[in-house]
């Protein structure tokens, strides 16, 4: 089945090579054979600008590292109007996809973008969100030029009718002009009908402010090109499960149909409140640390098998969308510290549950990664999840540091290879309070790839944790306690 599919959707490079070869070998007057062997199909269609007959060209091809697509291009010889569109030739993917690229240099403007009709483009630096529209095969630079053209179209009218909107859009246009290094005349000419020669922003020598571009497609039919390999430190991809609203918008679910109730398994231990049992969820009213509006914090005690009780705290602001979660120990302070060493040999190890407490450090010696205590706070996730969080935090540093000499970018490429388990590596969790946990896949038997060591804390470690001055027994006769009590009552 693979051969007919490849013949129907050849790669773009193969189409170009075959077309050039056919042009060289065909006789000068042989027009019929050229039409039969042409990879691009031409169809006459109506121009929606002048209502004359134009030509639509269709190309069935496959994009490397992506999938099969249909590229369509329309041009009207009467009025000069032209348009292009791309549609997926495959099925809707089972999961949505989000691509993120950090555009740090002008060469990054040449990254290819496949934007389907269900794709949303987000540029946070401009506070700009482009809703789903027609499919498009372009580059980052081409997308910015289209945005500038669309936003510039009605600016003179906005200046009269809505000056606030005009000023906001003009701020976005100024940022795009600075990136493209175009003057006002070039953008105005671009807004006119017909082909206009504009110099590529990639080849210009003007300074450029870095920015982030995100492509979110619930259908999974969009793509943002990486450079070299998927270990590109400026590029990231993640998948997610579609919501019911996404399925309705994609036409996969009937909007009038009632949603099926989610099946929830009843746990007899929930609400018991005993040691080693999961308790109910408690709600604490507070304020959002991002926007300052009222928001609730949810707290639940959970027992991890073969470990201890923990407290999971979560906040989700309905107003601004801020979300955060943290994990703290729900048991007594251990007498000794604990060091866990795991030899990661394949991707199956990335699915291990990991609890990294706020007092734990993390090391990966193969790439010289060392996280001190307190970094990332407390996290209860998988090994893949915590490596993704580390990568995202550090890649933000690269994005904000425009003077990076390339060494940190090389380190991020190594980290990306590690979080994909492209080669074996060693993970070390060192927790003086022994409140961290790494799942044993062979429990209750020992894990051959995991080593757990207990050690006595040093005086400095107890001092940093505040344990040297902590007195939990015999404090009733302490004169300092009596002095404090008298001071409070007086």
Structure description:
The longest helix has 18 residues, at 163-180. The protein has 12 helices and 24 strands. The N and C termini lie far apart (89 Å). A 5-stranded antiparallel β-sheet has the order 8-7-10-5-12, with no helix packed on it. Strands 20-19-22-17-24 form a 5-stranded antiparallel β-sheet, with no helix packed on it. A 4-stranded antiparallel β-sheet has the order 1-2-3-4, with no helix packed on it. Helix content is 26%, strand content 28%. The model is unreliable at 31-36 and 263-276 (pLDDT under 50). Strand 7 (120-123) and strand 8 form a beta hairpin. Helix 4 (140-152) packs antiparallel against helix 6 (163-180) and helix 9 runs antiparallel to helix 10. The chain has 490 residues and is α+β, with helices and mostly antiparallel strands.
Q: Tally the beta strands.
A: 24
The first-to-last residue Cα distance is: 89 Å
Which radius of gyration do the C-alpha atoms yield? 30 Å
Strand numbers in spatial order across the main sheet: 8-7-10-5-12
Question: What about the largest sheet?
Answer: 5 strands, antiparallel
How much helical structure, as a percent, in the residues? 25-40%
Count the helices. How many? 12
- The portion of residues forming beta strands comes to 25-35%
The overall pLDDT average reads 79
- The low-confidence parts are 31-36, 263-276
Overall geometry comes to elongated
Secondary-structure-based class equals alpha+beta
